[in-house]
Amino acid sequence: MDRRRILMAFGAALPLALLASLLVHHELSKVTARRAIPSIQVVIAAQNLPPGTLLGAEDLRQVDWPAAQAMEGMCARMEDCQGRAVLNAVVENEPILEANLAPKDSGSGLPATIPQGMRAVSVAVNEVIGVAGFVQPGTAVDVIATGTPAGGSTTVARTVLEDIRVLAAGQKVEPDAQGAPQSVSVVTLLVRPEQAAVLSLASVQGRIQLALRNVSDTVLVNPPAADEAAVFGTALREAAPAKIVPARGTARRVEPASSGVEVFRGTKEETSEAPQR
Predict the structure, then answer these.
(1) In CATH, what number does 39-112 get?
(2) pTM
């Protein structure tokens, strides 16, 4: 009797054991398949990194990365990144690329974010010049200079620089996360050396205005200059005199064809002779 019960229990347990074995085999097969994917070691950001951050061990970590999805310039060793500043903002878990790292011994902060051959120039702004505070780090602007040329007698406004990147607004090198305007008194622009001289002269000898543009719009249009005659004189010359239309129920005098007076009453028009003087 006991033997029969043992056999029955064994027969009932056998299918369950086979099912468990199949499930384990299936999971092991998936793990093996994942391990079979070729991978490489890359360095990623351990946290959000603002522009100019000098990288330390706490800012970085190494992970496996699918070899088929490798990007050009990925860093494989943490020691190749430490002691170097990031040129642009990096978000957590983003790969560290060689193109986004300043050269060794170039320091940290804003100076480290200036590319070779470029210059950072600061100009004074207010809410009007700074487009109500929407000129923020990472945006692009045109610079309009207004002044009187040497020997001239009229004020001229000309776009002297186009598609210029804003490096900093005040002492902030990152835009507001919500896109809110930032009220600052100084903005820093990234320019070439010859553009730095133009910007300096325009801000000292005249007045400048920043025109905000879409960062994806990189077309240089070189618009013509505008002077007072072009802005005001033409507009006044082309302005047509206003045409006066009499209101219903009012009288108007027509001369010299008739000495009568035309009067509108409702939809009817009547003419009556004016009394002789």
Answers:
(1) 3.90.1210.10
(2) 0.60
